[in-house]
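Example record

The entry below shows one chain as it appears in the dataset: sequence first, then structure tokens.
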Amino acid sequence: MIRRAIIEDFLEIYNMDFKYIKSFEPEDLSRWLDAKEHILKGYEDNLDSMFVFEEESILGFAYWSIHEDMPCVFSIYVDESSRGRGIGQKLMLSLEESVQIHGYDRMTLSTRLINPAQHLFDKMAYKRLAIKDDWIQYEKRLK
């Protein structure tokens, strides 16, 4: 089930973000740990645009925020044991719907070349705009 996140979800969401950093960006791990309070504040600031997928526990989350006057996917994560079940796609569709409700007709995102979610963004018709350093920039016009 997809639902809006609540403050009580933040520790689980933080731990999922931590798993991603530990697995794919270990060079940023100490910086990530040092910024915990800032990260949790960012979650709170974006609570209205944060969604979780929950069964018996939270299996994934995603949220968007405004970056350079555009809605941008700030984070999406699905627990490794639950990948391949369409959870990421459902979360992205929730973000897209939320963005449209807020009056926007497109959304952007940037991800590292090592991020396994690239296939999801490609599958959901996000257009690759550029690859710079080890980042891919995407954009999608929403219907």
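Notes for this example: The chain has a mean pLDDT of 94. The chain has one domain: 2-141.
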